Amino acid sequence: MTRYFTIRQFTPDDVEEVASLFTKIFAERAVTSKAIGASHDEYHREASKKVCESSAKEQLSFVCVDESLPKAQQIIGFRMCKTFKIEPTNFSESKVAIISNFMNDMAKKWLCEHPEITENEAMQRKVVFFQGLGVKTGYEGLNIATKLCLATLKNAKSLGYQYAVTVTAAEASQHLFANKLSFKEYYSVDFDDYELNGEKPFYGVKKPKSIKCYEFDLNLLN
């Protein structure tokens, strides 16, 4: 049976549905989440819901919809984004704070490598940051993630953004950005090497062995 999907812009009305899907995907699949032992409730409260709420404030994110499914279950993929911004260090005792601080540290490294952007707030507002990407179980292998990313990139370029930046710890996403979307790998950090407060929270993660930061010059987009 042929299935028809629609790619459309993410709206504030989608926050709850996407946050639930985000939680299920990342709490069950992400190597970082597994390594720290974050519960579904904690991940939902401290990560996915906050990401979706921040993404809803801008017209930068997209979802993939299967209208043959019941209401409130039709979103089968998402690409959450926001304008690039270094967030304050999260001093919460939540396990998920470890992940958010790791991602923020990676974003800081990228910014430090671009002094022309570091010293120019107007330029920083022209960088779109990819916050989360996921596809519902059973819908893998249909190029949904690729289509979501392309829709996001084209939209960001039309809005005047110049760069897209993403930090990813998933093998599938790293393959997508490097091989399908031609993102440039800017640097990587082995999970075994990352330290936070004198500890190595991701030590022993081997697949993938590292978290990677990628960038894409939107001027190269056709």
Helix content bin: 25-40%
Largest sheet properties? 7 strands, mixed
How many strands?
7
Strand order of the largest sheet: 1-2-3-4-5-7-6
CATH architecture: 3-Layer(aba) Sandwich
Principal-axes shape call: globular
What's the rounded overall pLDDT mean? 92
Q: What structural category arises from helix and sheet content?
A: alpha+beta
**CATH class, anyone?**
Alpha Beta
Fraction in beta strands: 15-25%
In sequence order, what are the helices and strands, one letter per element?
EHHHEEHHHEHEHEE
CATH superfamily annotation: Gcn5-related N-acetyltransferase (GNAT)
- The whole-angstrom Rg is 17 Å
Helical segment tally? 8
CATH topology: Aminopeptidase
Number of folding domains? Answer: 1
Structural commentary:
- There is one protein chain.
- The model has no long low-confidence stretch (mean pLDDT 92).
- A 7-stranded mixed sheet has the order 1-2-3-4-5-7-6, sandwiched between helices.
- Helix 1 crosses helix 3.
- 39% of the residues lie in helices and 21% in strands.
- The chain has 8 helices and 7 strands, in the order βαααββαααβαβαββ.
- The chain is of the alpha+beta class and 222 residues long.
- The longest helix is centred in the middle third of the chain and has 17 residues, at 96-112.
- The chain has one domain: 3-Layer(aba) Sandwich (Aminopeptidase), CATH 3.40.630.
- It has helices at residues 15-29, 31-36, 40-55, 96-112, 115-118, 121-124, 144-158, 171-180; strands at residues 6-9, 62-65, 75-83, 127-135, 163-168, 184-190, 210-217.
- It comes from Dinothrombium tinctorium.
- This is N-acetyltransferase domain-containing protein.
- One of its GO terms (molecular function) is N-acetyltransferase activity.
